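Input set for joint prediction.
Command: fold jointly, output tokens.
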Amino acid sequence: MLALAITNGLVIGMIYALTALGVSLVVGIMNVVNFAHGEFYILAGYFSYIFAHTMGFDPFAAMFIAVCAVFLFGVLVEYTIIRPTYGDELYSLILTFILSIVLQNAYLLIFGPYPNKPPNWVSGATNVFGLFYYGNQRLAALAAGVAVIVLFFAMLKMTWFGRMIRATSQDREMAELNGINTKRLNMLSFGLGCALAGAAGVILAPVFPVTPTAGVPLALTAFVCVVLGGMGSMRGCIVGGLILGLVENLGAAYVSTGYKHVFMFIILILVLLVRPSGLFGRSEA
Amino acid sequence: MKKCRMLICLMLATVGTVLLLGPALAADTIKVGVVGPRTGGAAATGKAFEEGIQLATEYVNAKGGVLGKKLEVVFEDTAGAPDKAASGFERLVTRDKVVMVLGESHSSAALAEIEVANRLKVPFVVVEAWADPITAKNYKYVFRAGPSNSGVVNESIAKWVAHEGFKKAYIVAENTDWGIGIADLCKAALDTIGVEYGFLMTERTSQDLYTELNKIKAFNPDVVLAFVYGTGLHYLVAQAGEVGLTPKAAVLDGAGPPSLWPDFWTNVGDYGDGATFVSSMHEKVELTELAAQFRESYVKAFGKSPTDYKSRSMFDAVLIAADAINRAGSTDADILVDALEKTELLVTRGTARFGTTKGGPEYHHWMPPMLIIQWQNKEQVVLYPPDAATGKLKR
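tokens >
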């Protein structure tokens, strides 16, 4: 049971981390808490389902198109809804909350209440070291999730765009003085944050089929990850996600399965008591 | 100026006409309210209810309506949340002036609604909320024309477990009023028939059930009695296959509809074959002539066969309500309660007849017959009760 709890904890933790990265990016650069993050995740799942299942595209092509579509939708949302609210975080918070409700109801109207699942990439399960069986689709999702995270960090560290993101998240004014068009960067970063949610959505939809409201608990976990890791810290997101995944699974294995998500809040409270800015957060001067 | 005065006169005349004719127009119908989840995690039930309402109102109105007027149904969304359910119920009574309320599929929402029904003295016929306390509270205005936890467990599940000769069972229940209530009844029933069992509770919103399922697998049960509703059931069936719990152990969906949803096979793949579920409806077997008529009308109206049995449960409830109003000859709440108590109506699931003995959940309750069905090569095979069985359990 211990081996399974740890393996599953790492897999689920990686999923949480991937979902939370987009939230962290948007918080770090724009200081905007996107309450509709879960709905972008769901939208990508639906797109991937439509392109692959209904329109008969190759599943991987369907996933790629779905993520691009969500990126563009994110850019549009930033341009129309978020941009007018810069300078007042409360407005963007309320607006994204409203957007979340509108999108949930739109999904219900368009896609119906039943769960939708894009095709699996692989089928069956693998016997892990003779200890337990583990679904092949989950293992594939883990590999894809790790690849996306690695690519994202490489982009952040090794590209000019990544350098602009890091500079702006450290000091917006100084970045502007150095010629960075922060308005355009905001737009692209918001789109990228949504695309990260979308990437998580297309990777996970074959494992956890999407429904109109399935993004709500996922977004909540992503926010917990971000707060636990430290607002705006990408490294914190990964560590936070892994801790949550492990705590949940070990708690379910050895304490109770009925309160799995309670463990995550207990850990969050304990960490915030000791480090109010989160594990990797910058404390206020 | 003259034109302006004429326009104002015209507007006043229009408003006056609407105000005068409004009550008269409204009086042409008798309104019955429906509560249920049209949004939220169980919105599929709301869709099934809508289908049942549409077919039932057409049926009732084609036969002359109620008290010589058309029957009109007003549907209030509860989203499965007790606070929304209570306020939605109150709105139906105070704003829409409904004479009776039907519906609900979430026990926690229904438990909030029965308090409002009792306070406002409005007859309420619960359709698909199974928790025993709904009728066990013995409220005068509360009825149930559908399954209850104790009815399903004692009449179907426990008897089926004994019938199949299972030695070890595992109960897995979501942490809701329905899940906790039915799990407790299951434990008591398994104790009575001497079947060893294990139990664990899951969170209603849990997507990942690997740890839970491996715990169950370690117990090595013959059957898993799953009281998990909605998409959670799809996760459970698919993941039980992945971790190797099935097909050695049979999995019973203790609610039913999720195993019949259109995307069941897409979501669970081949792991769905061999899954069993509780249902009041079979794809081919019909209990009454009205059930066959319902199927025919359903296919005609929606271009597909009925799958979620809750559409038919709602159909029956509307017919029961219309029958009670017609027999009462009045919309007075107390006279309606009296008429409901004397109900003896053949509907799609048999003859509806409410219990009148106080003291337990049987009071004001009609328990329709339930079947235990297994998917075998994507065909529904009835396993229990024996007199309705069309095949044997396959593993």
